[in-house]
Amino acid sequence: MRHSRLPALITLVVIVFLFAPLVVLITNSFNASRFGGEWEGFTWNWYEKLWEAEEVWESLWITLKIAVSASLAAMILGTLAAYALHRFRSWLQDVHSLLITLPLVMPDILMGMSLLALFVLTGVETGLLTIWIAHVTFCLSFVTMVVLGRLQDFDFTLIDAARDLGATRVQAVKKILLPLLLPGVLAGGLLAFTLSIDDYVITFFVSGPGTTTLPLRVASMMKTSRSLPVINALSTLLIASTFILAALSFRLQRRA
Amino acid sequence: MSTDRQRSKQWLLTLPSLAWLAVFFVIPAVLVIVTAFRPADLHGGVGAGWTMATVHEVSDPAYVPILWRTVWFSGVTTLVCLALALPMAFQMARVGPRMRQVLLLLVVIPFLSNFLIRIFAWKSLLHPEGPLTRLLVWLHFISEDAMLLNNAGTVLLVLIYTQLPFAILPLYAAAEKFDFSLLDAARDLGAGPWRSFSKVFVPGVRRGLVSAAVMVFVCSLGQYVIPQMVGGASDEMLGSKIAQRVFSDRNLPHASALAAGLMLAVLVPMLIVAVWQRFGRKEAAS
Hints:
The complex is a heterodimer of chains A (256) and B (286). In chain A, 79% of the residues lie in helices and 0% in strands. By secondary structure, chain A is an all-alpha fold. In chain A, helix 4 (91-105) packs across helix 6 and helix 7 (157-164) runs antiparallel to helix 8 (169-198). The longest helix of chain A has 34 residues, at 54-87. Chain A is globular and about 70 Å long. Chain B is mostly helical. Chain B is 76% helix and 0% strand. Chain B has 13 helices and no strands. The longest helix of chain B is centred in the last third of the chain and has 34 residues, at 252-285. At the A-B interface, helix 1, helix 3, helix 4, helix 5 and helix 6 of A face helix 1, helix 3, helix 4, helix 5 and helix 6 of B.
C-alpha cells in the first residue's frame, strides 16, 4: 500500500526553510551589491576587507583560545562524570544526573545572569577567566551526554577479559577502555568546541571590557551598517568550518 | 573490591563535575534569587541589607503585557515547531540509513551554525533592499513601503527558525525507536494515513514529543537577542527586560528579580513533566 507523500513534502520544505537564509547569505558574500537585492557581479572585495579587519582576527584568536581550553576541561570533567553516571547507581548519582541535565534546559540568559551575579558578588573581575569558566560550565553537560551515549554501547566484559589475561587495572583502562571510548570523547569535545565558538548570550554577560570574542565582535559589527557585507564573508567562512566540524564529528561518532 | 573502596572510587569520579556544577551552576542560581531581595547600589553592584522594594517593582502591572507576549510567542513557536518536526521525524525514521545520515547532517548544520549569523541571515533576507522584499513587490504581493522586518511576525518566524532543530532532534530520536509495523497493522485494520499517523505514531513518540515541546518552549521563554535584532519596539520579551536592566540600567537586583521569575516559569513546567513521566512509568509497570 502506498503511503502519503505529505511527510516527505514537509521534510523538503523544512530543509529549504533551514537553508534558504544561509544560501542567500553565502551568495551575497560574493555579490558586489551592498544589500544583495540584485546580483551586481562577482567580487572578492568583501573577503579582502575581512582580511584587513584586524580586530576580527584578534577576536578570533581569543575565541579559539577559550574554545580549545574550555573544551579540553569539559572533556576531562565530562568523561569522568559520564563514567560515574554509567558505573554507579546511588542517591549520589541521582543528584549528579540532575545537576548534569539541568544546564541543558536552562535558558542561556539565566545562566549568563546567574554567573554574572556570582562574579559581581564575589568581586571577580570579568574577562578571559570568567568567560572560560562559563564555557566549561555549559559544555560539561553536553560532553557528558555524548560520552554517556557511547558508554551505553561499550562492552564491559572486554575489561574483565583483559583483567583475566593479567592486565592491571591501569593497563585495562589505558589499553582497552580509553582507546575504545576516545571517538566518543573527541566527538563530545568537538561539540563543546562548536558550542563555545558559537556562544553569544552567556559570553555577553560574563565578558569584561577588554575581551571580545568573535560572536561579540559580529554583534557589534551588525550595529554599524558599514561592515554588513564583511559579515557575509565572515559568516560564509564560519558556516564552511561548521560544515567540516560537523562532518568530522559524524564520522567519529559512527566509527565503532 | 570492598564496598569502602567502591564508595571512595565513586566519590573520586563524581566529585570533579559535581563540585564544578555546584559552584558555577547551583550557587549562582541561588544567588540570583537572593539578589532579588537586595538593594541596588549606584555603581551597578549590589548594596548592603535587604529589601522587598524590587519584588514590589517587578509585580507592577506594566509587566503583564510583556509576560503575556513572552508566553504567547513561546507557545506559538512550540506549536509550529512540533507541527513541522513531527512529519519530518516520521519521514527521517522511514528512509534508508544513508539518507537518514544525510538528513540528520542537514538538520545539524544550520543548528550548529552561529546563532547570530542565522539571525543576521534573516535580517539581510528580509531587508527592505533585500531579495525577498524585491521579489514580493515585483509579484505585487506587498506594497513598495511594506516592512518585512521589525514586527511580531518576524520575531515569530526567526524564533521558529532557530528553535526548529530542538524539536526535530528529540522527535527523530523517538521516531527511530518506533515500531513502524504498527502503522501497517493500523492500515490493515482500515485506518487511513491521517488516522494512523495521529492515533498510532503520535502516541508512540509521546516521550520525544514532550521533551521537544519542553525544550522549545523553555528556550523560547528566555530569548532576547531575536526580538532585539528583528523585532520592533513593541515586541520585547521578558529576556529583553532582563538584559536591559543589567546593561542599560545597571540594576542587578531588578534584573535578578525578573530572572528569578523566569527561572520559576522554567522549572515549574519541567517539574510537571518530570512528575508526569515518573507517574506514567509506574502506571506502565503496574
